[in-house]
Amino acid sequence: SQTIHQWPATLVQPVGSPLSLECTVEGTSNPNLYWYRQAAGRGLQLLFYSVGIGQISSEVPQNLSASRPQDRQFILSSKKLLLSDSGFYLCAWSGGGMGSTEAFFGQGTRLTVV
Amino acid sequence: EDQVTQSPEALRLQEGESSSLNCSYTVSGLRGLFWYRQDPGKGPEFLFTLYSAGEEKEKERLKATLTKKESFLHITAPKPEDSATYLCAVQSYMDTGRRALTFGSGTRLQVQP
């Protein structure tokens, strides 16, 4: 069966510090991968998606970047965090090609920038 | 632009008191409508996918239905463990590449014993 791992679960970082959140998927190959952010009481906002290794598309201009160095690894990064980067970050995968369209989420990372 | 509106924002029920959550959507060609359950501090957990009007899916005390403009999540005789935020999302046929989901803001359900 497929599983998705996301870490860390919580993170407190000072303004101006770098960020690296990692997500890995097991039990599937060539998945679509996504980073979403969820503000309190709000829906999920798509930040980045990837349909393959090295292929990253950004949905919202911001202080963050994403990379996909391996087929089942997705990384969210920042060189210098802003207060506004605080939030709940979620990694997700879905089947690529003509496969299933539902997305499956990791457990999330609560990021607080202080 | 795809849009999803969920109502009510919050719902408090007594144990055993059945009710329904609403999800209204606007999408350029519905590829799928999805329901998720989210517990506090956790990632969303997939519940159902509905593809066409008239379709219904059930899981324990939950039943999801779909029309051309909205979906309902019916909760029959809820228990306190059903307390969670329920999220609705849509995917458009026009979005063939990224297959991302557009989410509503969710309904926060609290079931009291």
Largest sheet of chain B, in brief, is: 6 strands, mixed
Order of helices and strands of chain A: EEEEEEEEEEE
Structural class estimated from helices and strands of chain B: mainly beta
Percentage of residues in strands of chain B: over 45%
Our Rg estimate of chain B from Cα atoms comes to: 14 Å
- The shape of chain A is globular
Radius of gyration of chain A: 14 Å
Give the helix tally of chain A. Answer: 0
- % residues in beta strands of chain A: over 45%
Could you give the count of β-strands of chain A?
11
**Strand tally of chain B, please?**
11
Mean pLDDT across all amino acids of chain A? 91
Q: What ranges of chain B have pLDDT less than 50 throughout 5 or more consecutive residues?
A: none
Describe it for me?
- The complex is a heterodimer of chains A (114) and B (113).
- Chain A has 114 residues and is an all-beta fold.
- Helix content of chain A is 0%, strand content 56%.
- Chain A has strands spanning 3-7, 10-13, 19-26, 32-38, 44-52, 55-58, 65-70, 73-78, 87-94, 104-105, 109-113.
- In chain A, the strands form two sheets. In chain A, strands 2, 4, 5, 6, 9, 10 and 11 form a seven-stranded mixed β-sheet that branches.
- In chain A, strand 5 (44-52) and strand 6 (55-58) form a beta hairpin.
- Chain A starts with a strand and ends with a strand.
- Chain B is mainly β and 113 residues long.
- In chain B, 0% of the residues lie in helices and 58% in strands.
- In chain B, strands 2, 4, 5, 9, 10 and 11 form a six-stranded mixed β-sheet that branches. In chain B, strands 1-3-8-7-6 form a five-stranded antiparallel β-sheet, with no helix packed on it.
- Chain B is globular and about 45 Å long.
- Chain B starts with a strand and ends with a strand.
- The A-B interface holds A 6, 32, 34, 41-44, 46, 49, 51, 57, 59, 90, 92, 94, 101-108, 110 and B 4, 9, 31-32, 34, 36, 41-46, 49, 87, 89, 91, 97-106.
